[in-house]
Amino acid sequence: MRSGNEPATARSPLRLRFWLSMWGLVWSAAGAAAFSLVGRPGWAAACAVVFVLAAVDMAVVVRHIHQGPHYQPGRNIPPYEPPRGR
Predict the structure, then answer these.
(1) Distances in Å between the alpha carbon of 62 and those of 2, 26, 52, 57?
(2) Of 43, 44, 70, 79, which has the most beta carbons under 10 Å away?
(3) Alpha-carbon distance 16 to 20, whole Å?
(4) Phi, psi torsion values for 2, nearest 5 degrees
(5) Residues 40, 45, 46, 48: is their CA dihedral positive or negative?
């Protein structure tokens, strides 16, 4: 059902962001370890920065998921009604 107000009533794909953050954590940790073993400290630091960013993103996503349906509505919750005051 399209109503024309999708940007105002869009739902955040938090579960997708969670798994993408997990993917980023795994690969950045592996990259940091591999580059530090090879002797490339610059690339290891870059992977460590990506690891920290992915960890912060995952913490935000998990917090929003735990806050309930306001941030992550289930399939049984209809889309939010657009504001009618305009």
Answers:
(1) 29, 17, 15, 9
(2) 44
(3) 6
(4) -105, 135
(5) positive
66: pLDDT confidence band, cut at 50, 70 and 90?
Answer: confident
Phi and psi of 21, rounded to 5°?
Answer: -65, -40
Using a cut of 0.70, tell me whether the model's pTM lies above it: no
Please report which helix (H) or strand (E) contains residue 31, including its range: helix 14-38
Contacts of 79 (CB under 8 A, 6+ apart): 1, 3, 9, 11
Model pLDDT for residues 26-47, shown as the tens digit of each residue: 999 999 999 999 999 999 999 9
Q: What is the CA radius of gyration of the chain?
A: 19
Of 7, 23, 5, the C-alpha closest to 15 is 23
Q: Tally the residues of the chain.
A: 86
Contact 44, 36 (CB under 8 A): yes
